[in-house]
Each structure stands twice: as structure tokens, then as C-alpha cells.
Amino acid sequence: GGASGSDEGKGGAKQLKVAALFSGSATDADYNSLGLLALDAAKKDLKAETAHSESVPVPDAERVMKEYLADGYNVIWSHGSQYFEATSKLAKQNPNVTFIGEFDDKPKEPLKNLWVLDRNFHVAFYPIGILAGAATKSGKIGYVGGLSLPFSYSEVHAMNQALKDSGSSAKITPVWTGDFNEPAKAQQITTQLIGQGNDVIVGSLNLGMVGAFQATKGKSANVVVTAKYTDKSQFDPEHYATSTIYDFTKPLNDMITKIQGGTTSGYYPLGFDSGVSIQEPKNVDPAVAAKVDKAVADIKSGAITVEKNLTPIK
Amino acid sequence: MNEATSFLQLVVTAMVPFILAAQGTMIAGRAGVFNVAQEGLMMLGASVGFLVSLKMGGNLVGLLVAALVGAAFGWFLGWVTTRFRLDQFVIGLALFFAATGIASLLYKVVIGVTLKPPLIDTLPDLEIPLLSSIPVVGTVLFTQDVMVYFAFLVSGLLYWMLYRTNLGLKLRSVGENPKAADSLGVSVARTRIWCSTAGGALMALAGAYLPMTYTGTYTEGIVAGRGWLAIALAFFGGWRPQYILAGSAFFAGMEVLALRVQVGGVDIPHQFISMLPYAATLLVMMFALRWASVPAFLGRNYDRESRH
Amino acid sequence: MTTTATPPTTTAPAKPAGRRGTDLSWTVLSYALAVLLAFVVSGIVIAALGHSPVDAFRAILTTSFKSSFGFVETVQKWVPLVLLTLAFTIPLAAGKYNIGGEGQLLVGATAAAAVGIILKDAPMVVLLPLVLLVGVLAGGVYAWIAAWLMDRFGVNEILSTVLLNFVSFGIVDYVASEVWSDPAAGHPTTVPIGDGGLLPLVGTPPMHTGVVLAVLVCAATVVVMRRTVPGFELRAVGTNPRAAQVHGVRIGRVAVGSLVVGGALAGFAGAIEVAGVHGKLIEGMQSNYLLLGIIIGLIARGNALAVPFVAFGIAVLEVGASAMQRTADVPSEMVLIVEALILLFLLFSDVVGTRLRRSSR
Amino acid sequence: MTSVDETRREVREGASGPLLTMEGIRKTFGSVLALDGVDLTVGRSEVHGLLGGNGAGKTTLMNVLYGLYRPDSGSVVLDGSPVDIRDPRDAISHGIGMVHQNFLQVDTYTVTENVVLGTSLPSWPSLDLDDPAERIAELSKRFGLTVDPHAKVATLSVGLRQRVEILKALYRGAKVLVLDEPTTNLTPQEVDSLFGSLRAIVDEGMSVVFITHKIRETMAVCDALTVMRDGKRVGTVRRADTSASELATLMVGDDAAVGRVTEVVTAGMGAAAGTAATGAPARDLGDAPVRVSVRDLVVLGDHGVPATHGVSFDIRRGEVVGIAGVAGNGQVELAEAVAGVRALEKGAVEVDGEPLAGRPTAVWLESGVAYVPEDRHRDGILPSASIMENLVLGAQRSVRFRKGPFVDWKAARRHAEEAIRAYSVKASGPSAPAAALSGGNMQRVILARAFSHRPGFLILHNPTRGLDIPSTQFVYDRVREAAAEHSAVLLMSEDLDELTHLCDRVLVLYSGRIVGERTRGHYDQYELGHLMAGLEDTA
Ligand SMILES: Nc1ncnc2c1ncn2[C@@H]1O[C@H](COP(=O)(O)OP(=O)(O)OP(=O)(O)O)[C@@H](O)[C@H]1O
Ligand SMILES: Nc1ncnc2c1ncn2[C@@H]1O[C@H](COP(=O)(O)OP(=O)(O)OP(=O)(O)O)[C@@H](O)[C@H]1O
Ligand SMILES: [Mg+2]
Ligand SMILES: [Mg+2]
């Protein structure tokens, strides 16, 4: 059978077969759609043969990747840090296939055939923290997360750093809905955050974000909301402030090109010059927007180093 | 608006899907049809309700079509379990699978991949004249969207129909002792099919409400187990509309309260807070013997020529 | 008047010896027919969506067999499926609906992982049995909560087991993100358990030996159900609880016992997933095993002998499902529809079969 | 809806000729031929008896008439015109009413709700039951069927529930009223009152089909009767032209067979109750010691209220003690309590000197208690299990059928083969499922199980209900045998004929108390009926 496919054709200009794993539906207009767009771009630009699996539960990731291996795919991209464990495990077992894994840190022991994409979510949350601190009048900022994962903690820490750096005394209340994709809970919890006087809501959710916007949409409340991954302004143009925009097209293109060139391993940190941007803030003072721009510029220039702190917040 | 009012308003909104799905479960169950496809039918209702509202413009059309689709599923369950006496549990699960699959498939086919998901308007609040100006109550109960009124109205109507009309007398007898009902000329099959149809419609409406109040769009996690909880709620409410209404308030209250506790900054891990509603329900059930009855023929098919 | 929801037991009545042969062939025929029809109908849907039904079904049906790796994956998937099916059918034999296999699996897995992490330096002879045993115990205890509520307070077991599933999600999330969280996992996941707690692997590609344990459990279930006194009493309660009670069987105990045993098997499944597949506790590791288990149990009509085979069929389907999406680009939701159709047609073929059989007499 | 008055007018004005004719009715259940081309003709204003042993097909025939069963073939003519009855709704609209053998009532409803169920009400859509309740009261009065229209049926006695059933039919304006074995469970006095009501009903122009297997009853109330056997009609006669012994011969088949089952047939044959079975003189038990002692027994019913209030009695070795009473007076609870199935609230039960109160059922079984429950389908058998498994049930933990934790199926099979032979069970073998057995054969299996325990104390509750004549005789023989082997036998039956026939002593149970006792030689059924109805013991 095709099980031996991964062993043959070493080196040379072999046909690229790229497979991707997504955690949810690729039509989510969020993290997974971004993944599919990047994959489609790779297909077009690099003439790669591509395939993907949607809604792959974490425990199934290993099996699904093995199936791609068996089908002779030679680049396997698992889109989401929840797959990183399974990905590095398979990378060790399949030295002839190149894997692209996502992670929220620099791995301690790099593998020869594993590209690590560090999403560095904290970096983008520093300017968000600047924005929140500058925009809040009540001094209360609500952070709505899903699961309390290390990367979520790093986002809150980065915001706190920003508040501290900018001399703001505003306080962040982090809350967790328990699910990145549960909009109803996000709506309820956001409503209550606003009720408690929080006037900047920082969302770190996937599909749940849609619910958070419904808490403000059509309401006269003096609140701004920030989101993650994609432009979400249409959900509530009145209260939408900004979003940390991610683009996986360039990183994926870069990595695959390198892989074609024979570099089968590396560390690819996301940052403001590689796939991340902050959308032009709306509904806030131009002065606030300027502070955000400055923060981004400072991070790019190295004037500011955003500390990556993955430890739980007390 | 003060804190308590906004809290109660959230609770009332959160009650709606519970009320509709559980009353749908109840009405089918009172006639003996045990529907277990709630979770799927709610997904389908959400998907269809959203897509139709989007494409045909107007939430009411969306709600109507969602109800019709749910009714079709309910009808199918009623029909095959009476006409062919197929196992209700198995058919229910099959319908759950089918509805779940179709819900996402429809969205994929109609919308596809986009970074700008289309949105519909959520349901506007309708202030009931006079009543809405009562302090607190007016805001909590009478400044709500149309589905809130509908859910309460349906509960009231179901109560009235079950206990105050001849139709209800017949309906309940079909779930308690179908043979007796049959021997008196009450059509067991027809009653069951109708109730199951109505139940399916209510479940789909429960689902359709979610995009129309919480998101303005269909998302895959939108139902998030509320369908399964509706089954629990039907048992919790002893299969009676008035207790189900009370139970919905309890479930929804717990759901919102659990989040409120976090927002208030109570130092309990959020995972424990999220267990609160379920654990509380179990605790309440320990003292619920008095009202926790179940229709005698729930889930059992009736065969006129069998001796049992 | 009975006040519990007890749809008639799904266990098929025993058949007179003489007709067994023809009945078996009828059964096989009706199963085959149902699967065939389900594929035809979903094939039409797939074609209507603009994909190739042939590719789709080739993927579904061959993934498990075209490579030894696919086969191993299928077998490993079969393990939790078969155990969760038994977790459903054993209480069902006593007329109780255990809808809590999901929670019992998770709690079993949590306990197994906890032991594996706490005693991570213990040698295998100590740790592995301990990990499995604790998983079994935890699953049993978790089911016992529902059983106790049922026995002591008359709380309907469908209600309590459903609610306990939701509670277990919180438990797993807490343990995997707060207690022994692995910060590098990017998902609520615990750190790995000690090597001594891992089930040995055999063959290439490696297959965990939990499979053997599951086979043993299946065999033991059949023997216990058919040959032993408790099995006999369980079946007696299942076929007629009143008669069993009148003849000295303590039906309350049997019902409670069956739920606890069911929970223990689900907990065992959790422990095997931890010790054999993941090596740790992962949020979401329950997958959709609960629903598939119920479906398998119902398709097999509660027959302990049929369960492993039906479970294998569903495992093939599940493993094939993702392959279908990969290779034929058919949306994975299609598999749900195929499964629903198989169930529907299976029941229908039963009706048709009964009618044919009757008219052929 | 037609009212009773309109019915009467219609019938009076209608053509002459029979009111109802059923022709060539054939009905099969799977492979069982239940009705084999049966004809039935019921005249106007007559009580028509439908007589036959159990399983003869009486109920099936009437269920066909009522639209509950679809016949394979045959036709029904009502009032001169052929009718097609597809379901009970059709039957009701044609003026057919039926009181079923097992009452079909919704327990949680009131009398009025049960009666109006399925009819349309003028108060549509709301449910206003005042007018119907009044009409029910009026009908009750007119036909001597008094019952409180507002009572929940679950709280009513069997006799009253039966009235509700008849009222249901009358309320719907029945022209033909079918009563399926209505006298089971009634005291002789209640039977008389029922017969009075039936006469009142036919006097108003309706006809009644009265199903029974008691010759005496048909002789008491019927104008004409049809005898059925094995799914066939074996004859239709006018009461005036026949005799009890002719009917017995028709029922059983031939004179020789009558001889073999005399006891059973004669028990229900006497021309009037009371005169027939005063019974043989008392049997001499000598100074046989007490084997079973029951003291101050209090047991709770299913709803948590006491069902018996301090019942005490002794049974001696070899003695057969009967419990008479109208169903619902605590029989089930008493039977289950002394069988160790239901927990005792208070009191003591000793078997052979061993106190058993508070012990698990299994211990009672080991101590020699054997119980043949009233409802064999519900309490007696495991339908989908084999005969062999059914015979093991209750003894699965005894050494006879056990090897360590395993059931010794070899021993079980040997035992089953033996039992099938000894009890003449008609079955394909030990592996045949119990559900496939006929009622009589099922009861044989249950008896075989009870007797294989070599019972010291045998409790039988309605052991012959639903059995055909030979099977009933078989049960009678076994009871005698058990007594001869020194068992203490407690026989609870709703059939007074059976009690007076078999028992050395009859205790009357009313409202959970023993209200009277009669010994063999002093039986008078009216007197017993008097006690059963809760009236003072005048003896
Ligand atoms: N629903 C049924 N399913 C299968 N067989 C049936 C059914 N009803 C009746 N029979 C069979 O039909 C035959 C006639 O039964 P039926 O109940 O009419 O007898 P019966 O004369 O009313 O007896 P009884 O005096 O016991 O009431 C019996 O062999 C019985 O087993
Ligand atoms: N529910 C049922 N469904 C199908 N067949 C049945 C059912 N109940 C009984 N039968 C069949 O009907 C037949 C007669 O049953 P029934 O109990 O009425 O017998 P019977 O004529 O009264 O015999 P007996 O003299 O032993 O009492 C049995 O052989 C059995 O196979
Ligand atoms: Mg019979
Ligand atoms: Mg009968």
C-alpha cells in the first residue's frame, strides 16, 4: 500500500504535497479560514498539491496526520498550537517528511524536519493594551478568553506590561467562557463586564467573538471592543476598535519555499513584519490610535520588548 | 439600567432556547414520543433560520422556515415510530446525526469560505406599551424581543391546551394509556404525529433564536449542548409546561450566574464555576421526587394488536 | 402504573433453535441491504454537491484496509468504541439508560492520568496496573453517583448522566489547565504520565496492547452475561424486572451494579486512551464515542456478541470519514448523514424483513 | 353523537331482524389461528351470552367487532346494513360499545374525564365538564350504575371501575354493548346488581353481548347464547331451550372429556350461585402442626399507604387456606408480603418456626416459600428467556444449578427436560422461549418452578385465571398434591367457586383486614359475598 510513500523520492525536485489540519470548519471566517486561504495560496503560487482536514479534534490529530503520511504527503501543516505535541511526535517518527507546527514559544529541542511557527500572540496584545489603557475612561478593562491557556495568559501579561509602561492605572479583569467558540456565553459575559463598568472589551476568542459583539451592538453604551485574527468590524461598526490581524499566507509561503530549497527545519516567529498587524483603530480618539501606531513601531524597532510570560495570572 | 435588571434581562433571553426546546420535548413526550434529536434540530434551526433570514430578508421568514424544517423532522419521527413502530431512540439519534450534518453542510454550500461572514440583524426589542414602563419588571419582561413573548405565550398555551381543553385530555391520555385512548376513538398515531411535529418545530425555533439574538450569524458551536440539556430539563420539569418554565428560569439563571460570579472576580477556578449549573440541577433533583413524574408510555410505541 | 421511561428492551427475544440459521442470514442480509441503501442515497447527495461518490466511498471503505497503519488506527479506535458500547448496553440490559459514558470516560482518564503523573517514576509492573485500575474505579464511582441518585432519590438516570457529562468537562479542563497542565501543549493537556504507565506497543506500525484488554473484556462480558449467576440475574432484570424481583433478584442492586459496571468500562476506556494512545489527559479526548457507542449498542440490539463486530464497522466508517474529506473533498458532515441513513435503513430493513419472513411462512 | 334516547327510538323504529350479524370472521396472529370463520347473530333487545373456555376466541371476536383487530376475512352487518369497522372510532360511531376484560382507563383521570375522553364537547375549545358530569350522573341513576363523577378512577374499586366502563359506552349512545367477562372480581351481590343493570339496558332497546366462561352466569342473565371452542362457533341456543350440562358438553367438546374435567366445569355450572358449591364436608387434618404463622401484618401499597392492617392467620401442614375478596382489597400486597417480595411494615411471618420478616426474598425462597403470582406475564416469566432459564429463575444461586460463579446449564437442561415431561408442557424443548407458550403452558412452567422448590409454603394467586379447562384441572390436581405432601397452601382467588371447591378454610379480606372466616362445610357464597362487600358478619 501507500504506507511506504513517505520513504521514497528523497531530495530532487519532488512534487510538493501539502496537507493541513484545521481545528474547526474552514468556513469560520476566523482562524481556520485564514489557514485555508494560506493553503490555497500555496497551491496557486507554489503549484503544490494540497489537501486539508477540517474540524480535527486534538485527540484525532495524530491519526489524521498519519493518514496523510500514508497518502504520500510530504509537507504537513497542523494549524493550531493544540496539535503541536502530536506534530513533533510524528516528526520524530517520520524523518523524511517535513512538518510545520504551530507553537506559542521557541521549542527547547528543535527537530530536523520540523518548522515551528511561533504565533507570539503576546506581541500583538501589547499595542492592544496600550489602546485599552488609553481608551478606557472607567479604568476598567475586560478581557474575554475561552480556555485559560498559556498563550491567553501571555496576552494578559503583555497588556499589563503595556499599561504599566504607559503609566495607566487601569485594571484588567480576565474572564473565561470555557470555549473559544461559544458565542452565547461570550455575549452574556461581555454584557456583564460592561454592566460592571468595563468600557474596553478585549476579545481573545474565535467564533465566540461574534457573541461578544452582540453585547454591544445597537446599544448606546460608551464601550469599544477589540478582536483577534480577522477584521470583525462588520459585527458592530459602532463599537469596534480594532483587531489583531493574522495572515498565514506569507509565513506558509516562506516556509514552504524554504522547504523546497532543502531547509526542512526552522523557527518562524510571527511578528509585525511577518503576518501580524493591528488594524487601524476606529471609534477611538486619534490620539489613542497614534499611541497604538507608536507602540507597533517601537516593537518593530526593538525599542520595546514585549515579555513573553506564559504563567497563569493570579 | 441597574445591575439586577440587566442580569435578569440576560436570564430571560437565555431562557428562550431552553423553554422552546424543552416544551417541544415535553409536548411530544406527553403523547409518548421521546425525541432525542434536540441538539441536532437546534443546529439545523440555527442554520436554516440564519440562511433564510439572510437570503430572503427578514427574521420572521427565517423563523418560519426553520420551524417548518423542524416540523418536518418531528413529523418524520412521529410517522416512522407510529406507522412502522421503529425504535424511537434509534430514529431520534439518526435524526440528530442527519440534522447536525445538514446544518453545517447547508452553511458550507450557501456561504462557503469568506473572511467577512454575512450578518443578519438580531431581533429588535419590542416594548409592550404601558407594561414596559413598570420598573424592573417592565424592562426584564416587557422590553424583549418577539421570541421571548412567543416562548412565554407558547408555555401558557401549552398549559391551557393540556389541562383545560378536550384536545389536551386526549393528548395526555395517549401518553398515559394509549390503549384506553385508542379504544375510545382517539387516534393514537395522529396525536403522536402532530405532537411530534409541533415538538420538532419548537426545537428548531429554539435553535433559530440563537443566531437571531446572540450572533447574527451561524457558528458551529452555537448550540453548545443546550439540546441535551433540554432533555434533562423535560425530566427536571416533570414533563409539565409550568414546571418546565420554572426549570428554564433555573437553568438559564445558573448559566448566567456562573458567568456573573467570574465577572465579579470571585476567586474560584472558572472551570468549577462552569460546573455549577449542572451540579446545582442534580442537587435540586434530589428533592424533586414530588413533581418528577414521567408519562407512562414515554418512548414506547403502541401496537393495537399486541397484548401489552 | 410504571413511572419510568422504559422503552421495551431492545434485546431481541431468543429464537427457537430450528429457525436460528435462517434468522441469522436474514439479519446479515438486512444489515447489508441497509448499508447499501444508505450508500446509494448519500451517493446521490454527494453527486448533487458536485463531488465524486465513487471516490468518497472508496475512501470511506478502504482507508482501514489499504494500509496496515489504517488498520491499526481502526483497531485502536475500536477499543473506546466497544468499551463505551458495553458501558451503554450493560445497564440497558437492566433497563437503565446510561447516557454518561462520556463523563465516565473522562473521569476515568483523569484519574488514570493523575496516578500516572503522581507516580511517574514507579516501575511498569506497579504503575501500569495502577493506572488502568484507577481509571476503572473512577469511572465506576462516577457512574455510581448517578446510580445512587436513582436508587436513593429516584432521579431519572438519563437526566443525571447527561448532567454529569457536563460536569466532567469542567473537571478535565481544570486538571489539564491548572493542576498538571503542560504549558507547551497549546491546548488543555496534562504533562505526560510516567513511562511505566504506558501500555506496551506491539507490531509495526505499533499498536497498543489495550486492544488485547478490550478483546478480553468483550469475551468476559459474553461469558459473564451468558454463564454466570450475576449475568443471568442481569438478563432476568432486563427481560422482566418484576418477575426477577418476585424470584429473589434484588433489582435495585442489579440496576445500580449494572450502571457502575458500565461506568467502570467507560473509565477503563479512558484509562486505555491515556495509557495507550495519548500518554496524557487531553481536553476533548472523549471525541464522539458516547453517541457512537449508543448507536452501536442499538444497532447490535444489545447483543454482547454482536457488539464487537458492529463497533468495528463503525470504526471503519469513522476512520474512513476523514479520508473521504481529504481525498474526495466531500465535506466531513456527509459522514454524519451516511451514519444516520444506515441507522434508518437498518430499522426499515427490519420491518421489511419481518414482513417478508411472515409472508414466506 | 347519538344519545341513549335516540338510540332507543332508532332501534324501536328500525327494521325487524337481528341487530348484529358477524359472518365468517377469521383472524390469525402470526401462526396462531384465533378465529376460524366464526358467525354470530345478536337479536334486538337481548342479552346474548358468548360462552367458551379460555382461549376460545371470545375476546378476539369482540375486538374485531370493536375495530381493535383487523380480521383476515369476514363481514359485519349492523341493523341490516353492512359496515366496515376499521378502528374503534368507526365502531363507536356505529353504536358499538365495549367493556374490555382489562379495563382501559387512564388511572390519573377522573371518572368524567375517562368517560368523555375521545368525544367532542360543546364547550370547545375549553374543557367544561359540568354538563357531561351531570349527564353521567343521570345515566348512572337510570341504569343503577351509581359512581361519583369527580372521583379519580385510580381510587375506585373494581366494581366501580366497571361501572365507569359501562357508562363510557352508554354515554356514547351504544346500541350494542359488549361486556368481556364482567363478573370477574365482583361479589355475588355485585353480579346480581350488574345483571339488573343489563336488564335495564336491554329494556331500553339496546342489546348486550356478555362474555363469560361460567355456565351459571349465562343461565342467569342471557336470552340467547353462542358457545365457542378453539376459535370456532360450536352452537347458538336460546336459554330456554338448553341446560347447564348441554352447555358443558358444548364447551368441552364431548362427554368423555367432561368426565375428565368435571370439577372445573361443575364448579361454575350450578343454576344459581350459592347452591352449587357449598362443597364437600370438612377434611380431617388431624392434629397437623402449624407450618405458617402470620402475625399482625401491615404492608404498604404502591402509593405508600397501608394496604393491610394487622392481618393474622395460621396454616397447618397440609391445609389449604383460601383468601376471598374483591380485587384491590389488599390481596396483591398480602400475597407479596407473605411471599417475601414486599417488605413488611410491621408484623411477623414464620415458616416452620423460622422468622422471615426483614430478610431478602432469596432467603424466603430458600426457606421453602414458593409463590405463583397472579399476573404471570408481568410477575411470573421472563418472556424472551428460554423455558430452561425460566425454570432456573429463583434457584440460580442454589447449589442445584450452580458451579462456583457459573450457572450449571447442564443441570438446568436436565431439570427442564424433566419438568417439561412431568408437567406436560407443550413446547419444542427446553430452549423454546417462554413467550411462545400458551397461557396454560406458561402456568405449567411456573407451577413446575414453584414445586421444584419442594415448597413448605405455597402461595397461589389467581392460579387458573385465563387457563382453559384442562389446564385448570391440572392446577387443581397440583394443589391437592401439594397439600397431600404436607405443604401449607394459601390460595387467593377472585373465583369463589374455586375457593369453596379447594379450600379447607376461607378467610375474607376486606380493606386490608380479615373480616370473616368460614370452614369447609359451611360455605355460602352469598354470605361470603356479603363479607367481601364489607358488611357486618352476621353469622
Ligand atoms: N393480541 C394477540 N396476539 C396474539 N395472539 C392472540 C392475541 N389475542 C388473542 N390471541 C390468541 O387468540 C386466541 C383467542 O384468544 P382470546 O383472547 O380471544 O380468547 P378468549 O376466548 O377471550 O379467552 P379468555 O377466556 O382467556 O379471555 C388465543 O389463542 C390467544 O392466544
Ligand atoms: N403476544 C403474542 N404474540 C404472538 N403470539 C402469541 C402471543 N401470545 C400468545 N401467542 C400464541 O398464541 C397461542 C395461544 O395462546 P393462549 O395463551 O391463548 O393459548 P390457549 O389457547 O389459551 O392455550 P392454553 O390451553 O394452553 O391456555 C400460543 O401458542 C402462542 O404462541
Ligand atoms: Mg389462553
Ligand atoms: Mg378473553
CATH architectural arrangement of the largest domain in chain D: 3-Layer(aba) Sandwich
**Uncertain regions spanning at least 5 consecutive residues of chain D:** 7-13, 270-279
CATH superfamily of the largest domain in chain D: P-loop containing nucleotide triphosphate hydrolases
Characterize the quaternary organization of these chains.
Answer: heterotetramer
Q: Mind summarizing the main beta sheet of chain D?
A: 6 strands, mixed
The number of distinct structural domains of chain B comes to: 1
- The number of E-state strands of chain D comes to 22
The radius of gyration over CA of chain D amounts to 24 Å
Bound molecules: adenosine-5'-triphosphate, magnesium ion
- Low-confidence segments of chain B, given as residue ranges, are none
Mean of all residue-level pLDDT scores of chain D: 86
Describe this structure in a few short sentences:
With 314 residues, chain A is α/β, with parallel strands linked by helices.
Give a written overview of the molecule.
The complex is a heterotetramer of chains A (314), B (308), C (361) and D (539). Chain A contains nine helices and twelve strands. Chain A is α/β, with parallel strands linked by helices. In chain A, the strands form two sheets. A six-stranded parallel beta sheet of chain A has the order 2-1-3-4-5-11, with helices on both faces. Chain A starts with 16 loop residues before the first strand and ends in a 13-residue tail after the last helix. Residues 1-12 of chain A have low confidence and may be disordered. Chain B has one domain (3-116, 139-288): Orthogonal Bundle (ABC transporter involved in vitamin B12 uptake, BtuC). Chain B starts with a helix and ends in a 23-residue tail after the last helix. Chain C contains 13 helices and two strands; from the N terminus they run ααααααββααααααα. In chain C, helix 3 (68-93) packs across helix 11. Helices cover 35% and strands 24% of the residues of chain D. Chain D contains 20 helices and 22 strands. In chain D, strand 9 and strand 10 (232-238) form a beta hairpin. The longest helix of chain D is centred in the middle third of the chain and has 16 residues, at 188-203. Chain D is globular and about 70 Å long. At the A-B interface, helix 1, strand 7, helix 6 and helix 7 of A face helix 1, helix 4, helix 9, helix 11 and helix 12 of B. The structure holds adenosine-5'-triphosphate (2 copies) and magnesium ion (2 copies). One magnesium ion (MG) is lined by residues 58-59, 101, 180 of chain D. Chain C: It is found in: Cell membrane. Chain C: InterPro entries: ABC_transp_permease (IPR001851). Chain C: This is Nucleoside ABC transporter membrane protein. Chain C: Residues 1-16 have a biased composition (Low complexity).
